[in-house]
Design a protein that fits this description.
heterodimer; A: about 190 residues; mainly beta; Immunoglobulin-like; 7-stranded antiparallel beta sheet; 4-stranded mixed beta sheet; 11 strands; about 15% helix; B: about 775 residues; Ferric Hydroxamate Uptake Protein, Chain A, domain 1; Maltoporin, Chain A; 22-stranded antiparallel β-barrel
Chain lengths: ~190, ~775
C-alpha cells in the first residue's frame, strides 16, 4: 500500500514536471537584435581651441557609424596643429549608430569619471606636449587637456593615439588596468 | 472417543511433521555453482557478488568469476549479480536439484532500446574504430563529457580556459562532431569553440566514441566522429536501485553531488521510472603561480524517465535539463589586438586578472540552458524492430561581456547577446533481425529549427532550418569475416535573416549531402581482429561558417562567414589491428587513418581591421583541400598478478594541401605511460590499487607561419597519481578514488587551449570521488 502510494505520488510529480518544464523564448516578439538597449561608441571628436583666440577651433574626428566590423570608418581625420600654439582640447565620444538619435556618451564618462581614463600616446611628435587638466578627485580623467607645440623649425609627422579605458574599481592613474573601449591612432602633423 | 481422534490426529501430524522435516533436511543440501562472465566479450568477471534475495544471503565469486552456494532448499530464487563497473542484474532460477549456471552481466539480448550504431556491429567491435567508456569507471574525470571522451585514444580536448572543453576526434571538432544523447542528436551551439556540449555526464551510463563518419544514422556532418551517450535503462530490476556520487577537488575547491534512482513499480510491473540529478560548484582556478580571476562555475542538471514496457513494445518519455553558469577568465576577455599583444608579451596576467579565491561569477560569463523532452517508442516484431523517436530541444546561450552596456538606460543584467535555439526532431528506424548472414537497418529522420536572437549584438543570424535524411545499412558476415555497408542522403535548408544597415535581408541556402561507408572486419579466435573502413561523407556548411559576422572578444578577432561556401567532402580510410594474447595478458591495438577533405572549411587570417577599439585581426571562412593522417596506439600489459602497464599514444599530421602549409589548431602528438599495482583484497578493501601515470605532450611544431598570435607552447610532461578501492561499509559498497593531477605543480600551457595566450594551466589538483550503488529491496516475501 505504502509503495503504491509512493508510486502514484511519483507519477503525479513527474506529470507535474512535464507540464511545467518546457522552456521557451519568453519574448517572441523580439526576434531580432535591437540596439536600443545600449550604446556603442562609434565616433570620437577632438576639438582643439587656440588659447590665444578661442573662436579658432579645429576639430578632428573618427566615425564608424556601423560599429566594429562591417564597413570601415567613414571619417578618419589626420590631426594638423600649428607650431608655437597652446590649445585647449576637449574630447567627445558619440553613438552615431542611429542617425536619428545621436547619443553623447561624454556625459556618461564625466559622471563616472572615477571609472574612466583617457590616455594619449605620442610617437614621432617631439614638438608636442600636453597636460591633462581635469581630475576625478584623485586621478586624471583626460576629457580636458592643454596642448602646446614648440617653436622649433622641425616639421613633425607622427602618431597621436587616443585610448579610452574603462577601469571600474581598478583605476590607478595608469593606462594598464581595465578594458579598452576606444583605441584610435591618428596620424598627426605639426608644422 | 473424541480424545482418541484428537490424539490420532496429533500423532499423524507429528508423523507428518517428522516426514516433512526429514525431507527438508534432505533437500536443503542443494548446491548452486556458477560462473559470471561479461556478455560483451565473454571474459570472466572476477570477484562478482551474487546475492539471493529470498534468503538475504550472498557470496563472492573468485578470480575466475566462479561461485558456489551450498545448503539451498529447492524453490524459486531471485539472484542479483553485481560487479564493479556493471549495473547489477537479476536472474530467476528454479532450483530443483544441484546445478551449475552461467550468469552474464550486462546482457543485451532481448533488451529493448539497446545501443546500436550504423554500421551496426561497430558498437560490439570495441577494438575496432569505436571505443566505449563506462561512465562509472572514470570517476575522476567526471567533470565533463569531453574529459571522459578524451580518455579514448585519439580523442583530445579543445579548451577555452579551465571550465569549457569540447572533444576533438582525430583533429576535428565542433561542427564536425555529432553528439548523441539517448538516441537524439544534441542540437546546441555546436559551432561555438568556446562552448562545451550540454550533456550531464552523470546522466549517461555509457559513452561510445565512433571515430570517423561511419555512424550514418545521425547525419552526414560528423566527419570527425560521433559521441554517443547512453543513459541508464530503468526497469531492469524489480528493486529500486541507484547510485549516489560525491566528489570534491582541491584546486578550485569543487564540490559535486549526484544521484540516480531507477525502478519498476511493483503493482504496475510494466511501468518503470528513473530519476537523476547532479549539482556542481567550483571556485577560482589556481595555476601554480596565481589564481585565474573569475573562473568559478556552477551547474545543475536533472532528468527523469517514465517507461512502459510490455511484450514486444516499449514506450519511454525522457526529460532532461542542463543549466550552467561559467565564469570566463577576465584576463582573456580583451579589447583589441594591442591588449592581446600585451597579454602575450607578459609572462603573467595583470594583477586585476589574478585575484583571490572566490565562488562568485562576475562578467564576463556565459549562461547555458539545455532542455530535452523526448518520446521513444520501440515495437518489436518477429522480423525486426521499429523505433520512433520524437524530441524537442531548447538551447539557450547567453553571453555576458566584461564590457558593461553603456548608456544610462541600459540594463546591466541583460546579456550582450542571447541565442535561443529550438529544435524539433523525429526519427523512424527499422532494424531487421539477423537472417542467415544478413542484417539490415533503414531509417528516416527530420529536423526543424528556429534560432532566435536577443541582445545588443550577435555573431550569427536568426534563422530557421529544416532538414531531412534517410539511410540504409547492411551487414553481412561469414566465418571470420564481417562486412558492413551504409549509405545516407541528407537535405539541409537554412533561411537566415541577415541584418545589415538596419535592413533585414532573407538569405536561403540549400544543401544536399550524400554519405557512404564500407567496412571489412576479420576476427579470428578473439585474438586477432583486423578492420578496414572507408567512409565518404559530405558536410553542409554550418550557420557560423556561412553567416558569422562580428567580434569574438575571447580571441579579439573579427570573423566573417561566406554565404557561397559549398559542402566539404571527406574521404577517410582507417585500418585497425587489435591483438589479445591467449592468456589475455597482452592487449595491443593500433589504428591508422587518413582523411582527405576537399573544400575543408577553415578560418583564413586577413589584414587587420581598423575599429574604434583599435586594430582587430580579421578571419574569413574559406575552403581549401586538407589532408589529416595519424595513428593511435594502445598497449596494455599485465606484468604480474598485481602489476599492469598501460602505454598509449596518438600522433597526427594535418596539412592544408592547397596552400602547402600545416593546418592551424591541430592537437599535438602525445604519449602516456601508466603503471598500476593492485593489492590483494581484504575483508574491507576490495581490490585496492595505486597507479602512477606520466603523460607527455609534444610541442606542436606543425603550425602555419604568421597565422597565430603566439608561438605554440613548449612540450610538457605531467605526473598523476591515482588510488582507489571498493570498501564494504555495512551492506553498501563504496567505490572511492583519489586522484592527484599535475602532481609536481608544473607550469605549462597547452596548444589546444584558446586561453594559452593569457595564462597557465591549472596547477596541482587533488580530487576525491566516491560512488555508492544501492539497492532497495521492495519485494516482500
Amino acid at each position: 500500500m505504502n509503495l503504491k502510494f509512493k508510486s502514484i505520488s511519483i507519477i503525479v510529480a513527474l506529470v507535474a514536471i512535464t507540464f511545467t518544464g518546457c522552456k521557451k523564448d519568453d519574448d517572441d516578439d523580439h526576434d531580432h537584435i535591437h540596439n536600443e538597449d545600449g550604446e556603442l561608441i562609434t565616433s570620437v571628436e577632438l576639438s582643439f581651441i587656440d588659447s590665444a583666440n578661442v573662436s579658432d577651433t579645429v576639430m578632428f574626428a573618427f566615425r564608424d557609424p556601423d560599429g566594429e566590423g562591417g564597413n570601415g570608418p567613414t571619417v578618419f581625420d589626420s590631426i594638423k596643429l600649428r607650431k608655437g600654439t597652446t590649445y585647449y582640447m576637449n574630447i567627445s565620444f558619440l553613438d552615431e549608430s542611429n542617425p536619428n538619435d545621436i547619443e553623447d556618451i561624454t556625459e556618461e564618462i564625466k559622471m563616472e569619471d572615477d571609472e574612466h581614463l583617457i590616455c594619449y600616446d605620442l610617437v614621432g611628435l617631439p614638438s608636442l606636449s600636453y597636460i591633462v587638466t581635469d581630475s576625478d578627485g584623485q586621478f586624471p580623467v583626460g576629457l580636458e587637456s592643454t596642448w602646446r607645440t614648440d617653436l622649433s623649425q622641425n616639421v613633425d609627422n607622427g602618431k597621436f593615439k587616443v585610448t579610452l579605458k574603462h577601469q571600474p574599481g581598478v583605476k590607478n592613474g595608469s593606462c594598464a588596468p581595465g578594458d579598452t573601449d576606444v583605441e584610435i591612432s591618428f596620424t598627426a602633423t605639426i608644422n | 472417543m473424541y480424545r482418541k481422534v484428537v490424539f490420532t490426529i496429533l500423532v499423524c501430524f507429528t508423523c507428518m511433521y517428522g516426514v516433512v522435516a526429514q525431507s527438508i533436511i534432505n533437500e536443503c543440501q542443494l548446491t548452486l555453482k556458477g560462473k559470471v562472465t561479461d556478455t560483451h566479450d565473454g571474459t570472466d568477471l572476477s570477484y562478482s557478488s551474487i546475492y539471493i534475495v529470498e534468503l538475504q544471503k550472498g557470496v563472492a565469486a573468485d578470480d575466475k568469476g566462479r561461485f558456489s552456494l551450498t545448503n539451498l532448499c529447492p524453490g524459486g530464487y531471485t539472484l542479483i549479480v553485481m560487479h564493479i563497473g556493471c549495473e547489477p542484474d537479476t536472474s530467476s532460477i528454479d532450483l530443483k536439484e544441484s546445478m551449475s549456471i552461467k550468469l552474464d552481466l550486462e546482457h543485451h539480448a532481448e533488451e529493448l532500446g539497446q545501443a546500436e550504431v550504423v554500421a551496426f556491429k561497430e558498437l560490439k567491435q570495441e577494438k575496432m574504430l569505436n571505443s566505449e567508456r563506462r561512465i562509472d569507471d572514470h570517476l575522476s574525470s567526471m567533470t565533463s563529457l569531453a574529459a571522459i571522451s578524451s580518455t579514448v585514444n585519439g580523442v583530445t580536448m579543445l579548451q577555452s580556459g579551465s571550465n569549457v572543453a569540447k572533444p576533438v576526434i582525430h583533429g576535428l571538432h565542433s561542427n564536425r562532431i555529432t553528439m548523441v544523447n539517448n538516441d537524439v542528436a544534441l542540437e546546441g551551439q555546436n559551432w561555438g569553440i568556446e562552448h562545451a556540449p550540454e550533456i550531464d555526464p552523470f546522466a549517461a551510463e555509457r559513452l561510445t566514441v565512433v571515430k570517423g563518419a561511419s555512424a550514418l544514422r545521425y547525419g552526414t556532418s560528423a566527419i570527425g566522429g560521433t559521441i554517443i551517450a547512453l543513459p541508464d535503462e530503468p526497469g531492469k530490476l524489480d528493486q529500486l536501485n541507484g547510485q549516489v556520487y560525491l566528489g570534491t577537488a582541491s584546486n578550485n575547491r569543487k564540490g559535486l553531488a549526484a544521484f540516480k534512482l531507477n525502478g519498476r513499480f511493483e503493482q504496475f510491473k510494466k511501468w518503470n521510472f528513473g530519476i537523476q540529478g547532479s549539482v556542481k560548484k567550483s571556485g577560482t582556478v589556481k595555476t601554480p603561480r596565481y589564481y585565474l580571476n573569475n573562473t568559478a562555475m556552477e551547474e545543475y542538471n536533472y532528468s527523469w524517465t517514465v517507461g512502459y514496457r510490455n511484450k514486444g513494445f516499449a514506450s519511454t518519455v525522457h526529460y532532461s535539463q542542463f543549466n550552467s553558469d561559467i565564469g570566463v577568465f577576465s584576463g582573456a576577455h580583451i579589447g583589441n589586438l594591442t591588449d592581446l599583444e600585451i597579454a602575450i608579451a607578459s609572462d603573467q596576467p595583470r594583477d586585476e586578472d589574478k585575484g583571490d579565491f572566490s565562488y562568485a561569477i562576475d562578467r564576463p560569463y556565459q549562461h547555458v540552458e539545455h532542455e530535452t523532452i523526448q518520446w521513444k517508442n520501440v515495437l518489436e516484431r518477429e522480423n525486426g524492430q521499429w523505433k520512433l523517436v520524437l524530441a524537442r530541444q531548447f538551447n539557450l546561450r547567453e553571453e555576458y561581456d566584461k564590457h558593461l552596456p553603456r548608456g544610462f538606460t541600459a540594463d546591466e543584467s541583460l546579456p550582450e547577446f542571447a541565442i535561443n535555439l529550438e529544435s524539433y526532431t523525429g526519427s523512424l528506424v527499422y532494424e531487421a533481425m539477423k537472417k542467415g548472414n544478413f542484417q539490415y537497418e533503414v531509417g528516416v529522420n527530420a529536423i526543424t529549427q528556429i534560432n532566435r536572437l536577443k541582445g545588443r549584438r550577435s555573431f550569427i543570424p536568426a534563422y530557421t532550418s529544416n532538414g531531412m535524411g534517410t539511410y540504409a545499412a547492411l551487414s553481412y558476415d561469414k566465418g571470420f569475416w564481417e562486412t558492413n555497408f551504409g549509405a545516407r542522403l541528407e537535405q539541409k535548408n537554412y533561411d537566415a535573416e541577415i541584418v545589415e544597415q538596419r535592413q533585414v535581408d532573407n538569405v536561403q541556402k540549400r544543401f544536399l549531402t550524400p554519405a557512404a561507408t564500407a567496412e571489412v572486419i576479420y576476427n579470428r579466435f578473439k585474438q586477432v581482429n583486423l578492420g578496414l573502413n572507408y567512409t565518404f561523407t559530405q558536410r553542409a556548411p554550418g550557420i557560423n561558417e556561412l553567416f558569422s559576422d562580428g567580434i569574438h572578444h575571447g580571441v579579439a578577432a573579427i570573423e566573417y562567414g561566406d554565404e557561397t561556401l559549398n559542402p566539404e567532402s571527406s574521404q577517410k580510410i582507417s585500418g585497425s589491428i587489435a591483438y589479445q594474447s591467449k592468456n589475455e595478458k597482452t592487449d595491443i591495438d593500433v589504428t591508422i587513418y587518413s582523411n582527405w577533405i576537399a573544400d575543408f572549411i577553415y578560418l583564413q587570417p586577413q589584414e587587420a581591421a581598423l575599429t574604434i577599439r583599435g586594430a582587430f585581426p580579421v578571419y574569413q571562412q574559406q575552403q581549401t583541400d586538407a589532408f589529416l593522417s595519424g595513428v593511435d596506439l594502445g598497449w596494455n600489459q599485465e606484468l604480474s598478478k598485481h602489476l599492469s602497464l598501460e602505454i598509449n599514444g596518438s600522433f597526427l599530421c594535418a596539412q592544408n594541401v592547397s596552400e602547402n602549409k600545416p593546418l592551424i589548431f591541430m592537437p599535438a602528438n602525445r604519449i602516456y605511460g601508466g603503471l598500476s599495482y593492485t593489492f590483494n583484497s581484504s575483508e574491507v578493501f576490495y581490490k585496492p590499487f595505486v597507479g602512477v601515470g606520466l603523460s607527455h605532450v609534444f610541442e606542436q611544431k606543425r603550425v602555419p607561419l604568421d597565422e597565430d598570435f603566439a608561438k605554440a607552447p613548449a612540450a610538457y610532461s605531467l605526473l598523476s597519481l591515482t588510488m582507489g578501492s571498493t570498501l564494504s561499509v555495512g551492506k553498501y559498497n563504496v567505490i572511492i578514488d583519489v586522484t592527484v593531477e599535475n602532481l609536481t605543480n608544473t607550469v605549462y600551457r597547452d596548444y589546444m587551449n584558446r586561453f594559452r595566450y593569457y595564462a597557465d594551466e591549472m596547477g596541482r589538483n587533488i580530487s576525491v570521488n566516491l560512488r555508492v550503488p544501492f539497492l532497495i529491496n521492495t519485494t516482500k516475501k
